[in-house]
Every structure is written in C-alpha cells, then in structure tokens.
Design brief:
The structure holds two protein chains of two kinds. Chain A is α/β, with parallel strands linked by helices. Chain A has helices at 59-69, 102-110, 129-135, 140-149, 152-155, 173-180, 194-199, 206-209, 215-243, 253-280, 290-311, 319-338, 349-378, and strands at residues 39-45, 48-53, 82-86, 95-99, 117-122, 160-164, 183-187. In chain A, 48% of the residues are buried. Residues 91-100 of chain B have low confidence and may be disordered. By secondary structure, chain B is an alpha+beta fold. Chain B is globular and about 45 Å long. Chain B starts with 13 loop residues before the first strand and ends in a 17-residue tail after the last helix. In chain B, strands 1-4 form a two-stranded antiparallel sheet. In chain B, strands 2-3 form a two-stranded antiparallel sheet. Chain B is 19% helix and 12% strand. Chain B has three helices and four strands, in the order E-H-E-E-H-E-H. Classes of the chains: A alpha/beta, B alpha+beta.
C-alpha cells in the first residue's frame, strides 16, 4: 500500500460521506486502540479509509493539556501524521494543515465542530507548529511529501491547502505549489479564528494575523519554564548549601541546616522572581531587555529581603551576607528572566544576542562578587 | 503586542522595494504587522516589531526580502555557543526544550 493514512486501527467504518472517485474502494480491517478515543469512525475515500476525529475534547485530552503545560511527558505528546477527517468531508471540503503535536491538533479539531474538513497532519516530531516551522520540520518538503503519501489530490477536487500562519517561517508557498500543485493559503494565527476565516472566503482580518502575548499566554508558559530552569537553580542551591558549613572554626554541619537552608530558600525565591514574577509583570516592568526586567524584579525582591532581615538580623547574619544577597538575587532573577525570551512571541535573535552580550558578563560579575562576599561572611 | 516592544535598532530585516511586485504575501505571513502594502508596493512600517522569524523572506517569490532568521531565545544562543553551532533549540528530542 502506498498510502500512509496514519495506519490507525478502527473497527467502525463509515461510508458514503466522501464521494469516491475510483471504482473499487480499498477494503481494510481496523481495530480500535484504547487510547485513541478521539477517533470516532472512518471515511471511505478512493485513497483508503480516513480516520474521522471527534471535535469534542474529553477529560483525557484535557488532562493531556495540563500535563504538557506542567512539562510532564511533553515531548511524547504526539499523534501519527497523515490525513484525518472532521465531520463528513467530501471532495470540496477544505484541507487544514497541522502539526503532530497533540496539543496543536486538539485545539484545531475542537474548533471545527459542525464543519466538514480534512486535517493534514505533518510529522513535526511532536513539536508545535511555530517551533517546528522555525526548525523547518513543519516545512515545504514535509508538506509536499505528505500531500503525496496521503494521495490528497485523489481525495479532494480542489488545489488549496490552508496552512496556519505560524507555519510560514518553514513553508515557502511558491515552492509547495511547484512541488505539489497545491496552493498555500495562510490561515489565521489562532485556531479559534478558523471558522471566521473559512466563512469569509479564506480571508483573515488584520487582528487574526497578529500574535499577542497576553497575561494568560505568559502565565501558562511559566510551569514548563520553571521545570527547565529548576535544574540550574537546584545546582546553585546545592553550592550554597555545601559552602554554608564553612566557618572560622572549621566545617559545621549545623550551619548547613541553618544558614544553608536560608541560602537555598533565597536562591529559590530569586529564581521565582525571574521565571514567574517577571513574565507575569512583563509589560509593566521597565526596560526592554528581559535581563533588565528580571534584574529590576530581583532588586525589588532583594530590597524586601533586606528590610525583613533588618527586622530579623539572625536571618542573614553579618552585613557581608546582607550585601551578598543584594548582588546574588538580581543576578539569578535576571538570568532566569533572560531565558524567558525563548517562550516569548516577539523577541528577535539579533536583540537576544545584543542583550546577552551585555547581560551575561554583568550577571556573572554580580553573582560572583556576591558569592565571594557571602563566603567571606562565613568567616566573620 | 500589549505594549510590549523589544530592543530597537538591531533587526536585520531588509526590503528591496524595486524587486517588490506587491503580492502582499509578506504582510499576510508577518505575525507583527511589520509590512504595509501601498500602491502595489510593500513597505516596512514597524521595523523594530520584527522578530526575525523569516516567514516573509521564505514566502517572497521575487526575493525582495532578506533577514537573518533565527530563534530569539537565550537558551538557544547558549546551546549554540556550547556546541559551536548556530543558535538552536533542542526541540528535536531532548527533554530540555524551550518550545511549548
């Protein structure tokens, strides 16, 4: 069989919805697999049976969203590439291109209730459309290949595919047309606008074309960024914990629990300032560079810590420690915030390089000087 | 962009208006409304809003647009420095990916 229409197994078959262009439709045996609850039938076409997917997200799908947002099994949340059907599509139904990241696919299908359409899922290695387009896996070659392997031209009578606008960094519309004969129409940025876009005759408003970075957009990204950055924060905390045992009278385990515990907590607070507080307050923090925004958030946190320590002198101990944290907290916060550029929707590579050239030496000097003061503080 | 603007005067985007045929593809694919089509020609109206994603360059059939496209991601720049390659997110397989 030349057809790679995803090979999903089904035991329910449905016929008649799609008009079939060839004389003898292929017969296939399908068996349903447990975790593919979102496949609810099949559409018979001359290129074989195409799995029909539900437009309703079940609890399982929603748990999947929460888990990926928390960074649990995020890189394995994919589906088989190929062609899928929504509703009862025929030869004139639109073809929507998507990635084989289940989160992207779910958002798309859940927005297609009541509509007849085909979804052409590309093999993006389980990565979302925008990131995959940046890497080229959501790209011209893969589209041309997938159009061929699913025998799309035998399934639909038209020559148009709707590609999500955020796929455009990896896709050359003119090369797709040259390679496959299909014309690329760029759909809206958000799947929520897909119906309005199709109903308007495949025309997007200026608003549909624009990427945002709303409070909600930023908040949902924090957990994954937290999981990624946590390793470094943990290493920093361990370094402070080990060094906290140093004292004039030799190494003391008792100090590790006391001073060390406080130091680890302050490292964690600094990390949170950069990875959570800065993204949440992004538009309201002064400066354009993320490292500057993060440093300012860190200075505010450090000031609050110092005020608290002034009232409770036992917390930080010597004035050397107090000075050390004024340097360490903003440095860590700044570095963590700088890493949020990758999650943002508007930072250019040129800009990131420019800010890093200035910020990284500053962060290193500040953190290094802070660490030296803090170690000195162990001996006074 | 909710009042969010990134570092100004660094973007590498360039448009050769003479080559431009006014197809408006660049304006269609740009996620930050950097281009405007007037009198069958494209023009850059908001250069600093450009995030260098490269969509316009790739979809300009006459090659009127150039940009050093890449990911504006500090972690990717660090990765690239460590591995001696161009800035890259390791979205391919590794678990520490920056891409959601």
């Amino acid at each position: 069989m030349e057809n790679d229409n995803n090979g999903y197994a089904l035991n329910e078959t449905e016929t008649g919805a799609a008009s079939c262009c060839c004389e003898k439709p292929q017969e296939q045996t399908y068996q349903r697999s447990e975790n593919l609850h979102w496949i609810i039938g099949a559409i018979n076409t001359c290129a074989g049976y195409i799995p029909k997917v539900s437009t309703v997200l079940l609890l399982d799908d929603k748990i999947g969203v929460v888990k990926t947002r928390l960074g649990i099994g995020r890189m394995q949340y994919s589906l088989a590439p190929g062609l899928y059907a929504v509703g009862s599509p025929g030869t004139k139904s639109p073809v929507l291109v998507s990635a084989n990241y289940k989160l992207s696919f779910d958002v798309l299908r859940s927005n297609l209730s009541g509509r007849d359409a085909w979804i052409l899922v590309l093999d993006t290695k389980g990565i979302n459309v925008w990131c995959a387009a940046g890497k080229g896996t959501f790209g011209t070659e893969e589209i041309v290949r997938r159009i061929e392997s699913t025998r799309l031209s035998e399934i639909v009578a038209h020559k148009t595919i709707i590609v999500p606008q955020l796929g455009a960094p990896g896709v050359s519309a003119q090369e797709v047309q040259r390679g496959s004969g299909f014309r690329v129409k760029y759909g809206p940025v958000r799947a929520g606008d897909i119906n309005a876009y199709i109903d308007a005759g495949m025309k997007a408003t200026a608003e549909m074309r624009r990427v945002n970075f709303t409070f909600r957009d930023r908040i949902v990204l924090i957990p994954v960024e937290f999981m990624i950055g946590m390793k470094l924060a943990f290493i920093a905390a361990v370094i402070f914990l080990i060094l906290s045992g140093l004292s004039r009278g030799g190494y003391s385990i008792g100090r590790v629990a006391g001073i060390g515990g406080i130091a680890a907590a302050l490292i964690f607070i600094s990390f949170l300032s950069g990875v959570a507080l800065t993204p949440a307050l992004l538009p309201w923090l002064p400066g354009r560079a993320f490292s500057v925004k993060g440093a300012l958030a860190g200075i505010a946190i450090a000031a609050a810590v110092e005020v608290y320590a002034f009232a409770h002198p036992a917390i930080l101990g010597s004035w050397l420690s107090a000075a050390a944290w004024l340097l360490v907290i903003p440095a860590i916060s700044s570095f963590a915030a700088m890493n949020f550029t990758g999650a943002s929707t508007y930072t250019s590579l040129s800009g990131v390089k420019k800010e890093m050239n200035i910020a990284m030496p500053a962060q290193a000097i500040s953190a290094g000087a802070g660490l030296i003061l803090w170690i000195a503080g162990r001996f006074v | 962009m909710n009042g969010l603007k990134y570092i100004p005067n660094v973007v590498t985007l360039k448009l050769n208006v003479e080559k431009c045929v006014g197809c408006a593809m660049c304006a269609d694919v740009c996620p930050h409304a950097v281009f405007e089509i007037k009198n069958r020609k494209s023009r850059i109206t908001d250069l600093d809003a450009c995030m260098e994603c490269g969509a316009c360059e790739r979809n300009c059939a006459v090659g009127a647009i150039t940009v050093n496209a890449g990911v504006g991601c500090a972690a990717a720049v660090i990765q690239g420095k460590l591995k001696g390659t161009e800035p890259t997110c390791d979205c391919g397989g590794g678990k520490s990916s920056c891409c959601g």
